[in-house]
Amino acid sequence: MRTALVIGTGLIGTSAALALSARGVRVHLADSDHEQARTAASLGAGIEGEPAEAVDLAIVAVPPAHVAATVCDVQRRGLARGVIDVGSVKGGPRREVTEHGGDLTTYLGSHPMSGREQSGPLAATADLFEGRPWVLTPTPGTDTEVLNLALELVSLCGAVPVVMDADDHDRAVALVSHTPQLLSSLVAARLEDAAETDVRLCGQGVRDVTRIAGSDPAMWVDILSANPGPVAEILAQVAADLENTVRSLRELDSAEETQRISGAEGVEALLRRGNAGRARVPGKHGQAPTAYQTVIVLISDQPGELARIFADAGAAGVNIEDVRIEHATGQQAGYVQLNVVPGAVRPLEKALRESGWSLRRQ
């Protein structure tokens, strides 16, 4: 791939353009919002404006509702030898391309499974897709050259190609992406009118659950409008679980012991199902989850504190597998949770104490 056209210079489009430009591909940038395209160009993502002659690959990074029309426009005008879109829904747009008279042989739907809560070109990074799955949904009629260009795009962006049927993809993302977004927003919505004293008690749990609730509502309306059926089906199942859980909690509050026992069993059953589901989420490098143990360190909110902790861990020969920070409310301090393999806990704790760090017992 020597040349590419990116249509839509938001987070995903600009990130792909940055990755391609960094690897020597000549990238042209187009967007209905010319200011956004200029911003992406100023970041080094490419050259603003459509190419004078056909490029190797056009990357359509527009909202799902506009994918089909944009793909067909690219094909009709001969702007590229192949066209790939990066929208989060695949079945509907592909059918719409056919309805609009588009050519499925030179079009391939795809979805990079990566993103951020922020949107727009200023949130873009060239490494956004590093190590992340990138779904490709070719049909039996997809031209081999277009598939190869798509695979090259995925490789240049550092992602991992995953081939799926378009409708299977939509059901999968309804479960692992679209429904979690709504559930996060539902929990966060409870905080909107909560008393200030209550909100100040927020810990890491509520921060984890509500993190993606900060996403752009307009963007998510576009996404959910393109995949409402599968999302509604999963939410209906969640609603049934919620109804059963509410019933179990009511029983726990009962004066009758038999009902309290039944309620406890109902809540425990849900929590155990949650344990089983969580255990299936791929861990580091996509491998099966590892039972890491946590070392908790008190740090002050000063420059260089995290670097010192990692340096001390490295000097002790301990690899930090994962890390998170829990901020202390109203204080210039917090806790760093260092996840390590079980055998590394004692040597890490010993090294950190010798270096003067304060550790907190779990």
From TrEMBL:
InterPro entries per UniProt: 6-PGluconate_DH-like_C_sf, ACT_dom, NAD(P)-bd_dom_sf, PDH_C, PDH_N, Preph/Arog_dehydrog, Prephen_DH
The protein's name in its UniProt record: Prephenate dehydrogenase
Domain Prephenate/arogenate dehydrogenase: 2-279
Family designation: Belongs to the prephenate/arogenate dehydrogenase family.
Keyword Membrane: no
A Pfam family of this chain: PDH_N
The organism's place on the tree of life at top rank: Bacteria
Organism expressing this protein natively: Streptomyces axinellae
Metabolic or biological pathway, per its Swiss-Prot or TrEMBL entry: Amino-acid biosynthesis; L-tyrosine biosynthesis; (4-hydroxyphenyl)pyruvate from prephenate (NAD(+) route): step 1/1
Keyword line: Amino-acid biosynthesis, Aromatic amino acid biosynthesis, NAD, Oxidoreductase, Tyrosine biosynthesis
Catalytic reaction equation(s): prephenate + NAD(+) = 3-(4-hydroxyphenyl)pyruvate + CO2 + NADH
Domain ACT: 294-362
NCBIfam families: PRK06545.2-1 (NF005109), PRK06545.2-3 (NF005111), PRK06545.2-4 (NF005112)
Residues that span the membrane, as ranges: none
Listed EC numbers: 1.3.1.12
